[in-house]
Amino acid sequence: MAELVHFVHQSLDGYIEGPDGEFDWPVMGPEMSEDSRALGEHADAFLYGRVTWDMMSGFWPHAERYSDDPHDLAFAPTWRDKPKIVVSRTLDKADWNTRVVDDAGKIADIKAAGENLILFGGSALAADLTRHRLIDEYRVFVHPVVLGGGKPAFPAPLGRLGLALVESRVLDSQAVLLRYRRT
């Protein structure tokens, strides 16, 4: 069976968004950018929940208009070319080489068909996929910021899940990558 990796940026205090929904605090340095690029090449498709999809599809199709950051400029063509899947009960269709599925349970069928997936962000979808034991690896980037509130990376009640640490390293002298695999 193919694998599903959950790729998430979080603050030291465990949030993926600040109290006002802000996501301006992760810094993509060269090492982190290379790590995410390599992971993206391994994936057959990128996976999103509806909220994250709205954010991504509002930026990446025309990232060159909004940013001159080297990571953004390098990743934008990959994002446009890579197949994408959005899990949503309210979205009927999406552009940019994207399939829409209406139930997270269908992700099991997609994995069984051999597609390696990367879930970017999306705490609600990640929690649902975790409950169904569909996430094989958690790739958590802990950034040196305390947000003091916001949207938690792993909302309760999720239940206990045994994980094995397979890698930890500092990237760009600022963020810590923690890679855990489901046991």
Characterize the structure shown.
It is a single chain. With 183 residues, this protein is an alpha/beta fold. It has helices spanning 30-42, 50-59, 63-66, 70-81, 106-112, 123-131, and strands at residues 4-11, 15-17, 45-49, 84-87, 98-101, 117-120, 137-143, 151-152, 163-171, 175-182. Strands 5-4-3-6-1-7-10-9 form an eight-stranded mixed beta sheet, with helices on both faces. The protein has a two-stranded antiparallel sheet with strand order 2-8. The protein is globular. The model has no long low-confidence stretch (mean pLDDT 94).
Short descriptors:
183 residues; alpha/beta; eight-stranded mixed sheet; two-stranded antiparallel ribbon; 6 helices; 30% helix; 30% strand; globular
The biggest beta sheet is recorded as: 8 strands, mixed
- Main sheet strand line-up: 5-4-3-6-1-7-10-9
Overall pLDDT level: 94
**Radius of gyration based on Cα positions:** 16 Å
Can you describe this structure in just a few lines?
The chain is an alpha/beta fold. It is built from 6 helices and 10 strands, in the order ββαβαααββαβαββββ.
How do the strands and helices of this protein lay out in sequence?
Layout: E1 4-11, E2 15-17, H1 30-42, E3 45-49, H2 50-59, H3 63-66, H4 70-81, E4 84-87, E5 98-101, H5 106-112, E6 117-120, H6 123-131, E7 137-143, E8 151-152, E9 163-171, E10 175-182
Helix pairs in contact: 1-4
